[in-house]
């Protein structure tokens, strides 16, 4: 079953224009030349390329996969990827939100984030090659010397060269500071790199004639740990003075991983300097590698959340289409009548429950990522210091929630989509199981979710000066609760209020644990805290959206009830959208979010078994 909708475009527009009021940012100098029509056109184009060129190659990426040639150390991506890549780059999506001064289109992050959902829903493996150009170019534009920018940037901006980010080594995954790659300075100011990187996305491919690798390495003699790390640019081919490509640089791909998902993306092992001739240019200053890479990693973490949201959306759109067409059983009200007509499975209460769970979670994910992007736009364009400070706090505290919360939820949502398909969902002939396999890695790469949780708990909340980030989030939630009064039924306001009060208790307890030096108990609750934040934040956003969707439905339906209401829904797309949106927000707050309180209970219980357990406790058998 092939679809022409992988993302609910109406919902994207609702969030951007009705909830966030995106046009408000056109008051800033940076965005003054844009209007809603331009934003709409950009998103329509993104959707068209994503559906026509990306989605059409998604199954091919999964089934055909990559071809690694061990003689040439080259990787070929599926042939079908080339057309989509070309269309993406020619339309300029890789520089959509770059400032015009460096050749970008200067569009708001909110629009590039919304566009990214379309592309990732179409084909995540392919979108990664595209996004890697943006990431590497962004670092070069921010931190490159004039010489480095002149050498690398034009071909990145034109989309002619690809990019990567090279941190991981076999002994340095989560513990990046343990890396062994070395850099030695040469008399001409360049460096020679030696080392082995693993798991490098987009590490080798034939979509572009050259690939630029930002590589973390330690300059000889620099201190151990993260403090001694610098960042370098290694070009697959040496670059001549006139910008043309010279000889091969001394970096080769030694293999690609055979993975559970994202099979169209080359997760490569790269060997630098096997012949002692891997030439590199320093980015920024020596020993600033982690600080610089973090700029890219923060953006990459947010984009991992968007990937997870997009794959969930594609899985949901398939599931809901399948459920409308799959005839099985009769309506529950006719269960005792053997000659009752058979109905589509979407009529069965449990299937509706599964679909509403997916729908409401995905809409929550979308509100979360776009709200974050909107605040990035304010952060980068406002001249009001207070406004920038608040927007920065929002981006900081929401980043680990976007990365970890959405990626964990994507695994569950895509699994639920398989469930909607029944037995066919488990079969490779149908598109749905690929989404679950593709989604798993989002909780692992760009810093595992354990690391995101520690970041949220410690850096973004407890150790943030005066817990400013948290106080801003608190302000937003309180405002939404106030705004909802009189518009939204108290049944949906009260649990959000109560949930936030519970969170306050948790934060107070954690502050006390930190003060008392109970660090083990504290960090043991980092992941549960992050897992609690996600449904709470989604409930707040759903409550906010209800303050808009409820008045809209009242205006559309008036006093219409029962069959009259059904008739309006069947004849009017807007009526169907708004009433469906109200129901999914109510479902999320009423049916999904209450699990939050169980999580809070777990945290407050401070169960210490995991602290007491020593490695030998985990199995008797291994001791023998
Ligand atoms: C498909 C794919 C693409 C990737 N792309 C890239 C890329 O482009 N560039 C790149 O540099 N890397 C990339 N990676 C690597 C990825 O970022 C790492 O796999 C990840 O950081 C985890 O490192 P690890 O695999 O060594 O696991 P480990 O660090 O060994 O972790 C194993 C487990 O232990 C936990 N753990 C480890 N240390 C701690 C700690 N201190 N506290 C709490 N828990 C801890 C982890 O959360 C995890 O659950 C990619 C990986 C994959 C699978």
Give an overview of the whole structure.
The protein has a five-stranded mixed β-barrel with strand order 4-5-12-7-6. A two-stranded antiparallel ribbon has the order 1-2. It has 624 residues and is of the alpha+beta class. It is globular, with a radius of gyration of 25 Å. It is 56% helix and 11% strand. The longest helix is centred in the middle third of the chain and has 37 residues, at 289-325. Bound molecules: flavin-adenine dinucleotide. Flavin-adenine dinucleotide binds next to strand 5.
Q: How does the SSE layout of this entry go?
A:
Layout (H helix, E strand, L loop, with lengths): L8 H11 L16 H19 L3 H6 L3 E3 L4 E3 L3 H11 L18 H14 L1 H20 L2 H12 L3 E3 L18 E4 L5 E10 L9 E10 L9 E7 L1 E3 L5 E4 L2 E6 L11 E5 L6 E5 L5 H37 L1 E4 L11 E3 L4 H33 L3 H37 L10 H9 L8 H14 L5 H17 L5 H26 L3 H6 L1 H32 L4 H10 L1 H20 L2 H11 L3 H4 L12
Parallel strand pairs: 3-6, 4-6
Antiparallel strand pairs: 1-2, 4-5, 5-11, 5-12, 6-7, 7-12, 8-9, 10-11, 13-14
Helix pairs in contact: 1-9, 2-4, 2-5, 4-6, 5-6, 5-8, 5-9, 6-7, 6-8, 8-9, 8-10, 8-11, 9-10, 9-16, 9-18, 10-11, 10-12, 10-13, 10-16, 12-16, 13-14, 13-16, 14-16, 14-19, 16-18, 16-19, 17-18
Bound molecules: flavin-adenine dinucleotide.
Which ligands appear in the coordinates? flavin-adenine dinucleotide
Q: What proportion of the residues form beta strands (DSSP E)?
A: 5-15%
The class by helix and strand makeup works out as alpha+beta
Number of strands: 14
Provide the residue-averaged pLDDT: 97
Question: N- to C-terminal separation?
Answer: 53 Å
Tell me roughly what share of residues is in helical segments: 55-70%
Sheet with the most strands, sense and barrel status? 5 strands, mixed, barrel
Q: Regarding CATH, which class of the largest domain?
A: Mainly Alpha
- How big is the Rg? 25 Å
| CATH architecture label of the largest domain | Up-down Bundle
Q: What is the overall shape?
A: globular
Low-confidence stretches: none
Strand order of the largest sheet: 4-5-12-7-6
Corresponding CATH superfamily of the largest domain = Butyryl-CoA Dehydrogenase, subunit A, domain 3
